[in-house]
From TrEMBL:
The chain crosses the membrane at residues 26-52, 64-82, 88-109, 141-161, 167-190. InterPro entries: UCP010219. This is DUF3159 domain-containing protein. Keywords: Membrane, Transmembrane, Transmembrane helix. It holds the Pfam family DUF3159.
Amino acid sequence: MNQKDVWDELRTLSKGKTIDALIPPFIYVILNGFFSIQIGFAGAILTATLIGIYRFKNKTTLKYAFLGLLGVIFAASLALLSKNASNFYLPKLLTSIGLSITALVSLIVKKPMAAWLSHLSRGWEFNWYFRNDIQPAYSEVTFIWFLLFTLRGSLQYVLLIREDLTGLFIINTLLGTPLTVAVLMISYVYGIWRLKKLKGPSIDEFRAGTPKPWVGQTKGF
C-alpha cells in the first residue's frame, strides 16, 4: 500500500459537505448564549435552510444540508420542549451509545461492524470477510471504533449532566467529523497492514479461487 491509496480513501471520505451539519449547531450555541433557546432554535433552522438553498442553487450535494436540517429540527425541538438548551445534544449522546452497543455486540457474535460497513459500501462477498485469515483485521478495527464511541459517549454524558452547552459543542465538534475521519484513515492503514500479516487472499483472489501462496489485499478495506 502506498500514500496514493491512503489519499484516495481520504478524498472518498471527504467528498460530502460535512461542514453543512456543523454550522447550524454553532449558530444555535451562539444565539442561545446571547439570547434564548427559542432564538437559537430559529437561527439554527434558518441557517440550515439557507445552506440547503445555497447547495441547491450551486447544484452541489444536498445530502448533508438536508441531514443537518432534520437533525437541527429534532434536536432543537427536544431542547425547546424540555426547556433545557443542553438537550439539543441528547440525540448525539444516544447515537454514541447506540453505535458503541452495536460495535460491542458485533464483536461478541463475531460479525464485526467494520466488515458489515465495508460490505455495504464495497459490495464484497460476505464469506470473504468471515474467513479466519481475514476476520481478525475487521474485528480489531471494530474494537478501535468501540473505544471511540465509548469515549465520545462518556464525555457527552458528563457534559450533558452538567448542562455545559459550550463544552458539548466543543466535544461534539472535536470528536465528530475531524476525529472520525482520522480514525477511519488509521483503520484503513491498520486494516491493510493486518490483512497482509494474516496472509489471507485478496477479495479478487478469493473470487477467482486462486490457490496459495496469495498476494493478499493491497488496496481497499
